[in-house]
Amino acid sequence: MNTYWCEHAALPDGIRRSVRIEVAEGRIAAVTPGEPARPGDVVVHGVTLPGLANGHSHAFHRALRGRTHDDGGNFWTWRTAMYAVTHRLDPQTYQALATAVFAEMVLAGFTVVGEFHYLHHAAGGRRFEDPNAMGVALLDAARAAGIRITLLDTVYLEGGLTADGHLPLDEVQQRFSDGSVADWAHRVDLLADDATSRIGTAVHSVRAVPAHDLAAVGEFAARGGRPLHVHLSEQPGENAACQGFHGCSPTELLAREGLLTPATTAVHATHLSDRDIELLADTRTTACFCPTTERDLADGIGPARRLHDAGAPLSIGSDQHAVIDPFEEMRGVEMHERLDSLERGRFSPLELLGIATVNGYRSLGWDDGGVLAAGALADLVGVRLDSPRTAGCSAAQVVYAATSADVTDVVVGGEHVVAGGQHRLGDVGSLLHEAIAAVRR
Predict the structure, then answer these.
(1) Percent helix, strand and coil across the chain, each rounded to 5?
(2) Would you kindly state where each structural domain of the chain is located, as residue ranges?
(3) pTM of the full predicted structure?
(4) Cα–Cα distances in Å, from 157 out to 123, 126, 227, 240, 354?
(5) Is 194 a catalytic residue?
(6) How far apart are CA 30 and CA 392, in angstroms?
(7) What does the pLDDT read at residue 441?
(8) 2-50+373-423 domain in CATH 2.30.40.10?
(9) Does the domain at residues 52-363 carry the CATH identifier 3.30.2350.10?
(10) What number is the average pLDDT over the span 163-170?
(11) Which residue has the higher pLDDT, 339 or 87?
């Protein structure tokens, strides 16, 4: 049994001082506020938060950071650069890159990641000897980096959508497709959960999966009790194409095919109608906001507060990794609301922390995480309160002051993966530099 003594800790009833957290077999055995440190306790100064969930990630997009800003453009021009990165990704280079990216996440305070995985095959759609070689590379990378993972194995069958119908797959997109829902489901069934990994499902978007296939995906996910994620209304163009071809919004299409449930997460949910918000809330579908990506790609500002008030849970993700920083994503939810509403305090610090912790864990199929309480997963994050960024701030408002650079300790399943601001793998910057160079040569 390990015991962590926390100067401050964010417990379900608020910030408490002098908290001892006992850990046994990867779970929290006891939480006792108001206790002095004892010999042998691991001391965590500052404030200790529950594990933070990165609800939406594309690991290979990290290779694009700082390289897509010279010609302006929009999401669609950025996507062309993103597709180019895929050419040098195979199971070996992908595992090296994902290991470094996941280590960067842990160093920043993320303890679980939802990896939205659609890069399944080799060039031209050729199958690897192990049809799940790329997914296994991601699972192995998460294990090496010390982060929990929900592999959101993604259906991708068509090349796009216009008002006239679906487009064929292009050369790059052939790597993403299994050809049919049945073949996709067969491949996914070869994967299995373990102590630190969950196998989830995803529909890439209504652009990439025909309406007549959506219900089968939902049924497969439900049979296995797997979470189901989907890119939803990130761009106005998607809405226009769906309205033109299907006569409804993407949200209405998913609802019609039975894909909106409490196990579903709609990623981005940026351009929604009143009816869309009502449908997501009524079904308790989670909306995963990725503020640093949504502003980097000029996507727009989604209706976070309206969704929250209507009853749809919110979570956060770093998506294409323009930034990997849970505090920046949490603040982004609030700051985008301020810009849109001209009001401050749209979300309280406690609400933002809940979005990043318990909501995110649940959306990824880890219902017993994201909280510092007896019986929960032993995932916790220590944040210093004496840095140039956090000095003088209240422990209860640290989400408005801290950055990833202020994370000192990260414990995942009782394992101390980051200590004193250092990841157990060593120099994460060097790992990233080498892995990115290998796919950009």
Answers:
(1) 40, 25, 35
(2) 2-50+373-423, 52-363
(3) 0.97
(4) 16, 15, 20, 20, 35
(5) no
(6) 30
(7) 66
(8) yes
(9) no
(10) 96
(11) 339
